[in-house]
């Protein structure tokens, strides 16, 4: 075993509550083990390029924030990671994406299995018009889980994980759409976690929530560190700074989104290498 | 000055809106009260269960009610599965706005506008003669199904198409198969639109006369089986008011029953869809 992996395991075994200072430094256990590797990724819709030449490694167990102005391809980038772009008419993805060494772009790949392994949380909470319990249970059943006890246990665990259990334990059979926005978003996260993915993609998960609900979800994201590889798009730079170990800065140049800078969150914010990054993070442009 | 003009315009618009609504409601209430006024005297239990006598002047509408419900049942049994299948195909399996979907959609819209007498002739030629079903409840029901399908498919399709894209993406992101997403998310979410389409088509079916005269016939005795000829309520009303002198009172009675039947069926459909939704929400 490589020393880096050993470090990771030690940290994963003892979940830590980070102080803000530690997070800013980048948690000690975030040793770079590439989980998702991208080479020269290009995304286009109906022949029009929206993202070009993105190459980077996303590290296992870390939180990576994608920042940049609207329309610079962050969401497109996120959707390519689990091939949700397949659902968007006219989309075309070129380049190479590997998750744990497996080529995601392979046409023979079992997309359903990929979707199960890579969870996704959307900007707008999207619980199904089912009960709270069924929202989590239905995907589990569809993935072949049959044992009643097993399912109940997973539902409870997922709700515990997102801190929703105490709030909804008495009304699991109530419609999920009756929950508040913040609760709905946490239910969506629970639904994704119940499938035991290894990667979670989050597309501005807090932007439709009020500040209190948003703080709650943010705290939850912090707790996902180490257990999951999290990639989060956010427009809230303070949030990116608080939660992320790594940050990637995207910018539009010549009407095409490009990755400008990628690195440790702290160094990207405090000592950016690129002047565009410096201007953006200090609020001068963008 | 300008303010006064705006105020006047506002008043005018308010009046116009109220007037149109009152006119429509007025006509509806008029028809209903006229029917009730003339028909209520006929309406009793024996009218509902006994056979017509003296060409319908006396007696009841028992066999006719049975034939009507059988024809409607056959039509629904054919319409619902075929219609759901086609609607799902159109909205989920063909490219949105693609040539094939556009062509099928246009054909359906044209079919929905075809006069019912044409359906009657088609039904007679195809079901009665070509398929050898003869004048029968089966022929009548299947002909009605042809008329109901376009309405039902169109409203189901638009219901499915209006399901939020967030739910579709959410379902995919959870790795649900297309069938699972349809069954657990898309169809329940579009249940109100499906019910509305069903009610519209049932309304059209119950009101249908021309198409049935040529297909299910107008024999007014109790049908023995689905391959027996049977007279539908609307055909009965038409016959009484056009061909039978002194049959007006019975026609009114039958018309009132038809209206009540429509209301009851719509009520049942609405509560079933409600029940279905709640069932999907709470249990497995």
| Count of extended strands of chain B | 2
Shape label of chain A:
globular
CATH superfamily of the largest domain in chain B: MetI-like
What average pLDDT do the residues of chain B reach? 87
How does the helix and strand content of chain B classify structurally?
mainly alpha
Average pLDDT reading of chain A: 83
Q: Could you characterize the architecture of this molecule?
A:
The complex is a heterodimer of chains A (286) and B (284). Chain A has twelve helices and ten strands. Chain A is α/β, with parallel strands linked by helices. Chain A has a domain at 33-128 and 199-281: P-loop containing nucleotide triphosphate hydrolases (Rossmann fold). Chain A has a ten-stranded mixed sheet with strand order 5-4-1-2-10-9-3-8-7-6, with helices on both faces. In chain A, a hairpin with a 2-residue loop joins strand 4 and strand 5 (102-103). In chain A, helix 5 (132-142) packs across helix 6, helix 5 (132-142) packs parallel to helix 8 (181-194) and helix 6 crosses helix 8. The model of chain A is unreliable at 1-29 (pLDDT under 50). Chain B is mostly helical and 284 residues long. Chain B folds into two domains: 2-39; 46-282, MetI-like fold (Orthogonal Bundle), CATH 1.10.3720. Chain B contains twelve helices and two strands; from the N terminus they run ααββαααααααααα. Chain B has a two-stranded antiparallel sheet. In chain B, a hairpin with a 4-residue loop joins strand 1 (52-53) and strand 2 (58-59). In chain B, helix 1 (2-39) packs across helix 12 and helix 6 (137-161) runs antiparallel to helix 9. The longest helix of chain B has 38 residues, at 2-39. Chain B is globular. Chain B starts with a helix and ends with a helix. The model of chain B has no long low-confidence stretch (mean pLDDT 87). Chains A and B meet through helix 4, helix 5 and helix 8 of A and helix 7, helix 8 and helix 12 of B.
